């Protein structure tokens, strides 16, 4: 898109240079008569307008080389060209002024049409190029911000790694040893009710009550005898 705009600028520079030289030669009456053109009166105005057009042509040529000026100068020159073409068509076709012969009028009308088309084309191309440049600048700025953020993240990660390495080198590594809990033997409580007596009583159903009482008395007498073993807790 931008190379095409450069080509349009070169064409604009050539057109502006041609018209600038023509207006600069306003005092040359024979040239205007040969070209069937109307001279500008006074000649000083024509020559001043010619110098301005030559300067604009130089600016367009310089913008076609310098990329930073391409879109801006193309927009300005394009507006100048299509407005000039519209003025020429209005005066030549609408007002029929100046009065030109058939060939001169055809040349003037064609010149106005060329200026109109080239000017509008340059304006549209300059707008498209400017939009693309804005999008490119936004993308470049976003990419630059992303690169800066990535660099900051990388520096932060490197600093964290260095800090963790310093802590590991300054202090010994701590390893948690497994804690062995002592195993206590499980004992079941013995109920005093369920505990068996030291000398369980033998129930002898064959003895009568008097015989059982005599036996108990004999056992007690033997226990009370001196030198006889006594059971624990016996009074």
TrEMBL record:
Keywords: Membrane, Transmembrane, Transmembrane helix. This is Transmembrane protein. Residues 189-235 are annotated as: Disordered. It comes from the Bacteria. The chain crosses the membrane at residues 7-31, 43-61, 73-94, 106-127.
């Amino acid at each position: 898109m931008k190379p095409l705009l450069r080509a349009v600028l070169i064409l604009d520079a050539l057109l502006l240079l041609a018209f600038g030289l023509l207006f600069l030669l306003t005092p040359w009456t024979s040239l205007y008569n040969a070209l069937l053109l109307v001279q500008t009166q006074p000649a000083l105005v024509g020559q001043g307008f010619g110098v301005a057009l030559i300067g604009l042509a130089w600016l367009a040529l310089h913008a076609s080389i310098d990329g930073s000026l391409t879109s801006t100068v193309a927009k300005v020159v394009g507006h100048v060209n299509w407005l000039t073409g519209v003025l020429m068509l209005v005066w030549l076709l609408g007002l029929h002024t100046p009065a030109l012969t058939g060939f001169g009028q055809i040349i003037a009308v064609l010149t106005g049409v060329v200026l109109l088309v080239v000017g509008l084309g340059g304006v549209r191309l300059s707008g498209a190029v400017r939009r693309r440049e804005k999008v490119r600048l936004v993308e470049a700025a976003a990419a630059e911000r992303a690169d800066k953020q990535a660099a900051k993240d990388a520096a932060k990660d490197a600093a964290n790694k260095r800090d963790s390495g310093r802590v590991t080198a300054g202090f010994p590594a701590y390893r948690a040893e497994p804690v062995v809990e002592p195993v206590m033997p499980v004992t079941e409580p013995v109920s005093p009710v369920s505990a068996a007596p030291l000398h369980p009583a033998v129930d002898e159903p064959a003895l009568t009550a008097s015989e059982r009482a005599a036996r108990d008395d004999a056992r007690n007498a033997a226990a009370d005898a001196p030198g006889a073993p006594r059971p624990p807790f016996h009074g």
